[in-house]
Amino acid sequence: TNEEFLVEASINEFIVLPNNDVKIGKVYALENKEPIAKFIIQDWNGNTLVRNIGYFKVQQEFAYNSDGNQVRTTTNAGEISSRIFDYNKRFVTASISNATPADVAYTSFESDNMGGWSFAAFNPIVSGISGTPTGEKCFLMPYNVPEWLGSNVTINKDYILSFWMKNGGSNPIIGGSATLLKSTTVNDWTY
């Protein structure tokens, strides 16, 4: 016979972002245990990207921020990975598993992007504190954690907050509960 079969296939669905970047929005793949006759999948049609949704399933879906950076990937198994960009919004400074971008924050305090943190009344980033273990700048904690976590905090949800604290500093968690686990000490700073 001259019948044609499809053995393997993938489809990339592109989207146009508000900044006019063109990026992959979804990746589909053929899911079938045996070859499929072409007449079942149907001929190529420029108006229909996925010609038979019964056989092509979404494998990955991507979300982007206003700068066109890929900030979230969701797989067909429901796994979520997120990324935070810094240094003129060009470099990934944190990759996170099992959380959406709205649920995470990270910054080294060395650049202009606060990585999801929110500082209201003043700029708590200072330089010149001796012995800081990871850079030239650090964060002064005059407020309790929920006030400077900003809109990323969901009440009654567990979070992991990791930081270096100058020895002799007090617990920054007020208005909630926390288990402080100390790991290592460098130059009078404890992680």
| Secondary structure: number of strands | 13
Would you tell me the structural class of the helices and strands?
mainly beta
Strand content: 25-35%
Assign an overall shape. Answer: elongated
Number of helices: 2
Report how far the terminal alpha carbons are from each other. Answer: 69 Å
The chain-level mean pLDDT equals: 82
Oligomer category: single chain
Biggest sheet strand order reads: 2-3-5-6-7-8
- State the low-pLDDT regions, or none: none
The sequence of SSEs as H and E is EEEEHEEEEEEHEEE
State the helical fraction.
under 10%
Give the biggest beta sheet: 6 strands, antiparallel
- Radius of gyration from the CA trace? 24 Å
Any overview of this molecule?
With 191 residues, this protein is mostly beta strands. It is built from 2 helices and 13 strands, in the order ββββαββββββαβββ. It has helices at residues 38-41, 145-149, and strands at residues 5-6, 10-16, 22-30, 36-37, 56-64, 70-75, 80-86, 91-97, 125-127, 137-139, 165-166, 185-186, 189-190. A 6-stranded antiparallel β-sheet has the order 2-3-5-6-7-8, with no helix packed on it. It has a 3-stranded antiparallel β-sheet with strand order 11-13-12, with no helix packed on it.
